[in-house]
Structure formats: structure tokens, C-alpha cells
Amino acid sequence: MTLPVPDWLKHLVRTNKEALRSSQALTAESSISAHALHTVCHAAKCPNRGECFNCGDATFMVLGNLCTRGCRFCAVDKQRPLPPDPQEPQRVADAVKEWNIRYAVLTMPTRDDLPDGGAHHFARVLSAIHTTTPDVYTEPLISDLHGSVAALRTVLEAHPTVLAHNVETVPDLYAQVRIGADYTRTLTLLENVKKLAPGMLTKTGFMVGLGETAPQITRLMKDLRNVGVDLLTIGQYLAPSARHYPVQRYPEPAEYQAWKDEALSLGFKAVASGPLVRSSYRAGALYRQAMLEVATGKNV
């Protein structure tokens, strides 16, 4: 039986959808179409599209909008993708400049069909942005790249500001939820960022409502801190359709504040925690919070 969505959460989602009708949001939608771009905002059916488009934020999805894996929580289509588009890097860079974006977040579907997982193409996108708009900060949200250290190094050599890779859920649920992914591989990737680029901030995010327990969440956050993760996002899992993994629970808003407090006590530099928080939600603001913590030595 499908778990009923609480009224307070319905209201939050409805408010964000209404924001999609604003002139600024409509302009953003038009620009995305004009540049023939993909965004994770659309591909993952993000409930925050209205709010983010009205703030001038969007997360570009490079390497197409088709994924080679079948994670049961994800709305991105699972099919054999097309080859990388050689014109995409400059199109993304032009869109970043046109929107006057100061903090660009870029994600990708998992591309197990490519020998390097798409790392070279992703690095070309980052380089195009830095060449076209040198003052822009960039945050790539990458796949696990098959666990390849060489592929990870390729992305890091394009000099992003923050390197993000999502853990998504507690390790006990990987077999049911993250088909084809590996918890240890994810932790190792995040740890390797610190080895290859010691000064770079790392970021990850996970969902709640999948059936995880409080001790499992605490253990997950401790594991992430043990590999040096700096930035963390926590949000409610919302099933994209009846075919996807079913929601097990809708935590109350107060629980998100408790998780944030716990995460900060463990040493994360900045945490975004809330029902509609997603991994790229207000990413620039979270980065600025982290940099303030670095400057002051105090958690924000």
C-alpha cells in the first residue's frame, strides 16, 4: 500500500510548482530549450525547480539524460545513451554566461558505456566554463566513474571548486535501492579526492524515508567524515512513480534540524537538511557557508 503524503509536504511541493509560472522561471525554461541543454532539474523531476529558477539557479546535466544503471529511486531514464556531443561543452558555457551564473553545478548520468565513465567530456565542459567565464565557481556532481582513479584525476585537473558525489542512502539499503553501485567505491572516490587535491572541498548527499534507521544514519555520517567529506545534504525521498522504490516514511521537519545538528557536531563544514533539499539545492550558498566556517573555524 502506498504511504500517504502528509499535507504539510504537499503544500511545500505545491508552492514550488506555482513558482514555475513566474516570468523568471519561464525565461529559464526558454533558455534551456534554446541551448538544447539537459538539466537534472527536469530529468530527476526535482520539486525545487520553481524556487531555483527564480533565484537564477539550475543544475546542468551533461553527457545526455539517459543512464546506464537502474537505481530504483531515480527518475532519470535508463537506456543506452548516445555518444558524447562535442558541441555540448561550449553550449553549457554559453548558457552559464547568458544567465550570469556565478556558481555552476553540473551533474551527469552514470555512463558505464564509456571507458572513462565520461570523465574527459565532463572535464571539457568545466574547462569551457572557466574559459568563457573565468570568475565562475564550478561544482561537478559526478558518477562513481567505475571507481577509476585516473578518470577522477581527469575531472580534478579541470580545477572545479567543489567535487560532489552522492552516497544516496545507508549501506544496508544499497542492494535494494542502488542497483550497480557500491558503498565502498563511493567512499573511496570521496577519499581519493582529498588525496589527489588535498585543498578541495568534497560534498555528498543522502535521502531519508527509504527505510533507514537512526543508528544507520549516524554510522553513515561518521563514515563520510572519516573520509573527509566537508559538505552534506539531507532530503526526503519522493518516489517518481509507482514503479519506483516505495517511500517508507515521511520524517517530520524537526528531524531534519536534528540531523543537521548531529552532522555539524561530527565536523561537517556546512549542512543543508530539509524535506525538499536535494544535492544541488542552493549549492552556492552552502559553499559560502563552508568557506565562512573555514575562515572562522566555527560550524555554520
Shape: globular
Low-confidence stretches: 40-44
If strands are numbered along the chain, what order do they take across the biggest sheet?
Answer: 6-7-8-9
State the end-to-end CA separation: 40 Å
Could you tell me the radius of gyration in angstroms? Answer: 18 Å
In helices, the fraction of residues equals 40-55%
Largest sheet: 4 strands, parallel
Overall SS class? alpha/beta
N-to-C series of helices and strands: HHHHEEEHEHEHEHHEHEHEH
| β-strand number | 9
Mean pLDDT across residues: 85
What is the helix tally? 12
Which range does the strand content fall in?
5-15%
Explain what you see.
With 300 residues, the chain is α/β, with parallel strands linked by helices. 42% of the residues lie in helices and 13% in strands. It is built from twelve helices and nine strands. The chain has helices at 7-19, 23-34, 40-43, 49-54, 88-98, 119-132, 149-156, 174-177, 183-196, 214-226, 253-266, 283-296; strands at 59-61, 66-67, 77-78, 103-107, 137-141, 162-164, 201-208, 231-236, 270-273. The strands form three sheets. Strands 6-7-8-9 form a four-stranded parallel β-sheet. Strands 1-4-5 form a three-stranded parallel β-sheet. A two-stranded parallel sheet has the order 2-3. Helix 5 (88-98) runs parallel beside helix 6, helix 6 runs parallel beside helix 7 and helix 7 packs across helix 9 (183-196). It starts with 6 loop residues before the first helix and ends with a helix.
